[in-house]
Amino acid sequence: MLNRTILKTLPAGVSAPGYDPATIRTGIVHFGVGNFFRAHEAFYVDRCLALAGQQDWGIAGVGLTAGARSERKASQFTEQDCLYSLTEAAPDGARAVRVIGALHAYLLAPADPTAVLDLLADPAVRIVSMTITEGGYNIDETTGAFRLDNAAVRADLAGDALPTTIFGFVVEALARRRAAGSGPFTVLSCDNLRHNGDVARTAFLGFAQARDPDLAAWIEAHVTFPNGMVDRITPSVDDAIARTLNAASGLDDALPLVAEDFTQWVVEDRFCAGRPALEQAGVQFVADVTGYEHVKVRMLNASHILLAFPGILLGYRQVDEALRDRDMARFVNAYLELDVIPRLDAPAGLDPQDYRRSILRRFSNPAMADQLLRIGGDGSSKIQVFWTETVRRVLSDGGDLRRIAFGIAAYLEALRGVDETGEHYAPAEPTLDAAQLELADAEDLRAALALPAFDGWRDVRSVALTDAIVAAREAIRAIGVRAALTECGGLPG
């Protein structure tokens, strides 16, 4: 079993932490110890802990959910001294395996909420970070406000028992620190959503305001919520993958992890109680993360779904398979080169061409086994976020609409749930009802353009774009996806 006692006798090719994990102390508490956190934040902190004077920044993880699965996970972490192996896989097949020691404690909140509160109230803790998923912040999508109608939130606000939500734990801990005069900590969201710090600020202040307006005012004045852009593909690991990883590494690890060899973290440098020297571990600190978010959304996220929709129709199921198709690769590359980059306001020091090349390299990585149906899922929401700005700019300057039109046509055809090989699948569109989904099958090929996916540019509606979308849909049905891509997709010669 992987634990501290075997760190000096690891199998050949497996790197040990560059420090003694038994000597580090807790400076960060993290809620939501999932695969992405372990391959991202913990990966960077692990690098930091090997630097002189950084041993006070160890991470204590907190799990918020009860049940047998959560208890098993907590037991596995405890038995392995919270160590785990990370395999970094490159597109060319090269692999590097290291043991991560940054996580040195793990608490299951339902089992011992008092211990969690005591830990958060400890002045040594200066950062509370989280990966609680994009939907975990309990924000009303219509009003943008923190929802007070959630049952668990209501229970925590009632104060009849120890908290169960992250909002209850964090705000109670800040109340205790305020009363003790021990100062605030930084609340650091590591979830993959735009302006995640602002979202976290809205959530925690919303809870605090409902509990105690004076406490909310203190939090607003003293606690920092930096925005950050996070990026690393980290697939799920089932039992079969875990066995494969362990067979390759020679370890007996109950919690092995695999991730791509690319990783990025851009963070606004606003930490009220100090931070680790993460800049020496590869993290980029900036005054404003907005420009980096725009580049990621309009290039990486947008091209991901642009690859997904026609790829699904062609019968591909993995991202790397679709990108190995020469026509698909040319299509995505042309979109980035001709439609996005010329209209992109990239932050200083970021080369869009280098970023484009990194995107195509990352998408080609077979070790990620990323599913096109997952990437294309919730397309209605993703199109609004990922494509809107580019569509608006192309319409504004009279640019070539063919690639955009073909991407939209492929999305609408993909909503019909059958690829051109005849295989059926279920499109995952949680925000669309049955009547909306039926628009994709309407005889009038313009009807589906009423879907909310296209609301972002409805005020600058273009007859030329509508006609190009309809023409592309007709071509896909008449001559097939590949021929339609060549005819309607604006591929460079």
In short:
The protein has helices spanning 35-39, 41-49, 68-79, 113-121, 151-158, 166-180, 196-211, 213-222, 239-249, 290-313, 319-323, 326-340, 352-363, 372-376, 379-386, 388-397, 402-414, 434-438, 463-479, 481-488, and strands at 14-15, 26-31, 58-63, 84-89, 95-100, 103-108, 127-130, 186-189, 228-231, 257-260, 264-268, 284-286. It is of the alpha/beta class and 493 residues long.
Can you walk through the features of this model?
With 493 residues, the protein is of the alpha/beta class. 44% of the residues lie in helices and 11% in strands. It contains 20 helices and twelve strands. Strands 6-3-2-7-8 form a five-stranded parallel beta sheet, with helices on both faces. Strands 1-5-4-10 form a four-stranded mixed beta sheet, with helices on both faces. Strands 9-11-12 form a three-stranded mixed beta sheet, with no helix packed on it. Helix 10 (290-313) crosses helix 17 and helix 17 runs antiparallel to helix 20 (481-488).
Largest sheet: 5 strands, parallel
Q: Look at the structure and give the mean pLDDT.
A: 96
Strand order of the largest sheet: 6-3-2-7-8
Q: State the low-pLDDT regions, or none.
A: none
